[in-house]
Amino acid sequence: MKKWLQMFPGVIAFALVCTMAIQPAALAWDDNHNHSSKTSTPDDFHKLLFFLSSTPFTSVDGSFLVGGLFGGNGLHFQSHVMNRSDGEIAQNRADAIVFFNTRFGVDVTDPKVYFTGFETLSETHYRAVVVSDQHVPSTGWPVHDGGWIVVVTDPAGITLGGEFPGMHVPGKTMFVFGNYKIDRPKSPMILSFKSVKPITPESDRSFMVSCEIHSDEFGVGQAIGATLPIDLPNGQLVYNTRNIITFPPFGEEVKSKLPN
Which of 77, 148, 155, 173 has the fewest CB atoms found within 10 Å of its own CB? Predict the structure, then answer.
């Protein structure tokens, strides 16, 4: 255990902050006698969500994606999870391509990058364990995570444009555009996400993510998360993700001081 703490001090601190921020305010039991908790929304915010994944699973290529990074296409997520028609999928894909070019100056046809659809494996047990002011069971609500991704495949990296003119990013840098669908009883929760900044994995494959979030229910928010893949001796992988989402992104006090 001490070895993992020494390897990932930054993320351990992130996890401790998460723990302190989501103390349950009320307890309850659902119809199946499972423990559930209700967390109050922090002052200055409208809504807080906390996702995590810590379940071992078998990966085809060291990634946490259905079919692997280069083997999958994410179309199951689009058609069966998001219930989009072929025309809606084509439009969503086109929107993603425009986004990658506008924000990062990335042309998805550039041979230095790889563009594809993606879907996170359900075996990772990615789940929402906190949705503030709502009772969530201790098992959490399943989170479906998918969309479109660009990965820099050139080991020399690429130079960005758009909102990051002249910024050079290394190989394996990622950019994402997609949706979370949370299996909340009675009414699934849909969130859309877009990369705020490049996602750059470290040498140990860990990475931090910052995404702009949009919700018809909660408005505009921000996700800040960390993923630290762990290889187990039996050959399985742990996604090992902690993701906090707030609405609004910075709290009302900060929001009121930002330029329009």
Answer: 155
